[in-house]
Predict the structure.
Amino acid sequence: MATRFSIPTGARRQFAERLFDSIHRARVLRRAAGDASSRRRVPLARLFDYATGVEHDDDADIGAALASDPFLAQDFKRLLQQTATRQMARVVAASTQLLPTREGDGFRIRLMPSKADTAQVYVVIEVLDKGASPSALFTCDSGDRCRRHPLPPAEGGVVQMLLAVDSDLVRALSDVTTEVFMR
């Protein structure tokens, strides 16, 4: 069961921003001076906005920082676990399917090969609980590398995208060890 989180406002939001910034500063101070990951600083308040969709929807700086800083990526994953409206855990048993169908908290994701072009795959996300349509999907692989993928609007509770077989999203969704979060 997923934990629901409401986005703080007013004084609570300011407190959360200060708290996240303090935690981030403490980690930066603990890192070795020559550590490459310490060169990319992203305040955790900005990371919170990125995870919740409030601001910075497709911020390349945050994507690069998440890719280069394992501490920040771990913080981001924990943040997603607390704020995502829907999530899908890693599959424990290995799948024999090349393109698996996976069930999550209120949604199902199917990868279907295109009949017109074998180099393309349909990503079909069915929103089962008929809640608000998701606007972003986050994937976190077994190494806690997380990526944000904007989603087109759902039609009748279904989000559909046609992507290349070797796209980042298709590769991530094909890996049963990838965790999926949606907002």
